[in-house]
Amino acid sequence: MVSQVVATSREKVCKTGPIVLLGAPGAGKGTQARKITEAYHIPQISTGDLLRENVAKGTSLGLAAKAVMDRGELVPDQLVCDMVAKRLLEPDCAQGFILDGFPRTVAQAEWLDNFLNGKLFEGHPCKRMPPIVIDIAVGYNQLLRRLTGRRSCPTCGRIYNIYLQSPRVPDVCDAEGTKLVQRKDDTEEVISERLKTYERQTLPLLEYYRTKGRLQTLDGDRDPDQVAAQTLQAIEHGHRL
Ligand code: AP5
């Protein structure tokens, strides 16, 4: 008789290890994270989405983050790291996960390395697997076009662009029929601040991961499917680094 084995999250094998998507605001991290989720069936953990959920619910984290996000600056490292720690310990992360928008400072990257190797992650199938780090590089003018043209579906989260990836019916989600919305921080003034914040606080991260031999940079100026093909290749290559 064949005995049935019910796998718990602890017994699962980590399929990909942690995947870190880096890139400026509008580089296409969210778009590519959704494609990786479809290919590998692992969750997308977007710190921007988690923070916006907290703002919408009016939690204490949301109250602390709102004004900072409205200005296009970064939420303090400790608040974001605590939020990520809680999320990574949920059972759906057992086979791997995609970090979209995290880390964003060298301090966050150091925290992540310690967390993945530390006590709280003991017994997790992805423990001690070094992250696969993918930087999506896109030129400045293209970033501006992507951010000012972005619209998303409040029901399913699907992302569109009025200039580059428009829905079939203007301003309506193809899948849900819901009216699309524009993010509050996608105004020209806040976009300019977000891009400055990226240069000042996030660009140094590239050097951090380059020094560790983990950084892979993709040409993000191509169309989303071409970028996705490069992304999936980088994930396969990342296992061999
Ligand atoms: P967050 O939500 O992470 O915003 P972001 O990093 O500024 O990135 P975006 O979501 O704007 O862009 P994306 O790269 O995901 O591009 P997308 O795929 O949507 O963070 C928001 C705020 O939260 C931060 O400013 C900060 O305050 C706070 N925060 C978040 N994480 C934090 C952290 N770790 N620490 C501290 N604070 C934190 O695509 C953009 C558009 O381009 C879309 O319209 C899309 O359709 C289009 N597009 C995408 N790819 C292509 C392509 N290849 N060709 C043509 N169009 C494309």
Name the features.
241 residues, alpha/beta, Rossmann fold, two-stranded antiparallel ribbon, 7 strands, globular, binds BIS(adenosine)-5'-pentaphosphate
Please give a structural write-up.
It is a single chain. This protein is of the alpha/beta class and 241 residues long. The chain has a domain at 2-137: P-loop containing nucleotide triphosphate hydrolases (Rossmann fold, 3-Layer(aba) Sandwich), CATH 3.40.50.300. 44% of the residues lie in helices and 12% in strands. The strands form two sheets. Strands 2-3-1-4-7 form a five-stranded parallel sheet, with helices on both faces. Strands 5-6 form a two-stranded antiparallel sheet. α1 (29-40) crosses α9, α2 (47-57) crosses α3 (60-71) and α4 (77-88) runs parallel beside α5. The model is unreliable at 1-10 (pLDDT under 50). The structure holds BIS(adenosine)-5'-pentaphosphate. BIS(adenosine)-5'-pentaphosphate (AP5) binds at residues 23, 25-31, 47-48, 51, 68-69, 72-75, 80, 101-102, 104, 108, 146, 149-150, 159-161, 164-165, 194, 223-224, 227.
Helix and strand topology:
Blueprint: E1 18-22, H1 29-40, E2 44-46, H2 47-57, H3 60-71, H4 77-88, E3 97-100, H5 106-117, E4 132-137, H6 140-149, E5 150-152, E6 159-161, H7 188-202, H8 204-211, E7 215-219, H9 224-238
Parallel strand pairs: 1-3, 1-4, 2-3, 4-7
Antiparallel strand pairs: 5-6
Bound molecules: BIS(adenosine)-5'-pentaphosphate (AP5).
BIS(adenosine)-5'-pentaphosphate binds at residues 23, 25-31, 47-48, 51, 68-69, 72-75, 80, 101-102, 104, 108, 146, 149-150, 159-161, 164-165, 194, 223-224, 227.
